[in-house]
Amino acid sequence: MDKQLEKLISLHDLDVMIADLNRKDIRKRETEMGLHAEGALEELKELREAFCKNINRKWRGLYNQLTRHYGNAVVPALMGRCAGCLTRLPTAICSDPDRNLKIHTCPTCGRIIYWAD
Ligand SMILES: [Zn+2]
Fold first, then answer.
1. Which range of residues forms the domain containing residue 65?
2. How many angstroms separate the alpha carbon of residue 95 from the centre of ligand 1?
3. Which H or E element spans position 18?
4. What pLDDT shows up at residue 110?
5. Ligand 1 centre from 102 Cα, in Å?
6. pLDDT of residue 64
7. pLDDT tens across the length of the chain (117 residues)
8. Whole-angstrom Cα distance, residue 27 to residue 35?
9. Rounded-to-integer distance, Cα 21 and Cα 26, Å
10. Could you tell me the pTM of the whole model?
11. Ligand 1 is an ion; residues with CB less than 5 A from it
12. CATH value at residue 70
């Protein structure tokens, strides 16, 4: 898999974790359990910042732009469709065994696509 693509997927996972920690219901439950959601959140944000430095500026810019617009920038292809907007993806890309070796974006919504297989 393309190294930048791997990092973008991990960045997306980090952002999901940060968004979860930001949810008030989860924070409340963790506080009740004696966990420190606040500390964990700060740590994750620092980790995210350090992680971003390893991502090519072009892809980082696109990632941030897509996240602002859609909330999720990186989506899997499911049954030949973009999981973000459900557009059918070009067959030539889907059937290419090396499809994860470069970064593809959805021709309709522009989200970054990967194939989990
Ligand atoms: Zn799409």
1. 3-114
2. 17
3. helix 3-22
4. 97
5. 17
6. 95
7. 999 999 999 999 999 988 888 887 777 777 777 767 678 888 889 999 999 999 999 999 999 999 999 999 999 999 999 999 999 999 999 999 999 999 999 999 999 999 987
8. 9
9. 6
10. 0.84
11. 82, 84-85, 87, 106, 108-109
12. 1.10.287.1490
Say how far residue 101 (Cα) sits from the centre of its chain. Answer: 17
Residue appearing with tokens 């732009």: 65
Q: Who's near 104: CB < 8 A, 6+ residues apart?
A: 89, 93, 112, 113, 114
Domain count for the chain:
1
The candidate with the shortest Cα–Cα distance to 100, out of 14, 15, 34, 3, is: 3
C-alpha 58: how far from its chain's center? 15
- Residue 30: what pLDDT? 73
Q: Indicate the SS3 state at residue 57.
A: helix
Going from the Cα of 34 to the center of ligand 1, the distance in angstroms, rounded, reads: 41
